[in-house]
Amino acid sequence: MKRFSVVVNDCAAPSVPGILYIRSRDTEYGERNFTANFEALATGLPRLFAPRELDWLEVLSHLFAADLVCERGRGDTDWSRSIDLWLPVRDPDFWDDHRSAIEGVWVDLTGDALRLHFVEAADAPGPPRMGTTAFPKHEGVALLSGGQDSFVGTASLLSEGTVPLLLSHSASGATNTAQAAVEAALRNFESGVVRLKLSARRSAQGSFATFEASQRSRTLLYLGAASAVAAVGGSGKVWISENGVMAIHLPLTEARIGSLSTHTAAPPIVERISQLATAVLDSEIEIVNPLVAKTKPEVVGVGVDLGIADRFVDTVSCWKIGRTRAHCGVCAPCLLRRVSCETNGVADVTYAADVFDDQDALDDPVARDNLAHFMALTQDLLTVGDIALPIEYPELLNGEPAISLTESIELHRRWGEQAHAVLSAHPVPQSIR
Amino acid sequence: MGTSVSYRAPVTPRWSAFTTALQQGQPVERLCSELFNAGSDWEEALSGRAVAFFALAVTTAPERLLARIEAAERPDRELLAYVSEARGAAAELEPTSAAPIAERALATVLVRSASGEEASLEGRSGAEAAASIQNALGDPSRALASYLGEVLSQYAKHVTAREIGFLTEGPQSIGVSEARVLTEKLASAAAGVAAAAEVPTGDPQESWRGLLQEAFERGRRLPGGER
Prior knowledge:
Number of domains of chain B: 1
Shape of chain A: globular
Largest interface: A-B, 72 and 64 residues
Structural class of chain A: alpha/beta
Number of domains of chain A: 3
CATH architecture of the largest domain in chain A: 3-Layer(aba) Sandwich
Oligomer: heterodimer
Order of helices and strands of chain B: HHHHHHHHHHHH
Distance between the termini of chain A: 35 Å
């Protein structure tokens, strides 16, 4: 286990060796190394963010920064982290009351231990300014990542006459391009739809002493910011669109348990974030995943029915897209995307590596491992019996409270068959089955 | 499933002995001995206070969980909440790399216990699930032995499953299906090490470290002799 001490904006903290510093503004001790910009969120709201709402946004962004600056080890017992984080807030007593709940969500998402130390902010900044134009009438806030699922989920809402505000977390160039393309496609459903851009990132490459790419906590910032907009805007509703197989996050194998796999949209965690946001923002926040009962091939099928399948080539799924600008073809999201597009016979992106048809692609141990693990889960879902399946994969319970265990099992059985049908049609998976 | 990573075994002589034995198709007894011999870091992590807390959550499940499950429309929801509470409390107690294995072992023991011998957890009423848990975990010593076995099983699965890709390489390669079968066999053998444990009564937080270390020590031995 790796241990870290992190201090935000040089707030008061004990002198311990090896401190990592996060600065979201210049201080007398150093330049800003992390940028968090909430101006776009505030511009069309009916009022300014209150101090407590500003604290919420800043706490979440600094948690995300801590996730980025604390570098994990490469596997075995070095993957996990224990982090002590000192961060300034306007009302330390209030945040101390919510410390345990925040730490609990962090543990759920990252698998790491976290100890928060709230310190009274010496010179907290004022709220971001409002613009002159109010946001259009909307019924909630929908996260728009630039991927297929949020594209389909939002298009489904719009096709039913439900108009959300869209919220994206700006990231790499490729992701930003995809978000803009998806936004343009969604305008075909509703020309007046508005997308807000949340910016939170290290200021420049090398601005952190160390850097961790796994970003397991990102969803807390993303959902938390959407919740703040929903609370102040009065809708009280947030949509996160993620297919059920990705949301429930069965590990591909036992080698990927805990935070070795993401838990981005896991229903129990989403519920805890909703409860936390409701308590902190003093406003009822409902977070809904409209795709949780569908497999990804089924989600892509919905996209076909909605007439947006020709735009899927503009979307991004790859874990490495921020670093390579191309779909690697190797990571689990790429494998799942490929299965989903092939199941529906829709045009897909070009993958840098073809682990389905090019045997040489398996010379890369990561590619070989990912494909083998992907196949292992598929095979288990087809062969393990009804009594044993939830015992072998207790993560199936993670459909609660959105879907029951029975629905979760049926969902994964369907996905197993869909994936098996595609994998069986290609020579490389057949060669190692 | 989601974005995920796995890491093959560290390049150390003891882990190399395990992976080489795996690739050579050595007998399960030998493989089991090698995986316990290689995992000294895991032994330390798994014997810690946080994992002992998960063990306590198993032995106290009959008194702390049954009433909740009996009254529940969906017992799986109560099991999930119980595991989540244990995760949070264990994290408060002591940060540990072993938490994912310990937590999964807890969830597995609870689901298996609530299911009973011949039924799946899905569709079970709260009363049926509660009765099954009482039957399986009502004896604290038996409950603790069950958890110890599951921790060892999950450890074996974790360190074997990460080699599935490796096992599909080279002239001695095996397929994914065969590698899964091998993983299950090793997990079963590792759990079997717990069967010989002398599990004391009383607070498992007092006895856990000794129990786990003794199990690793026993696991290192090859049949018929010392390592």
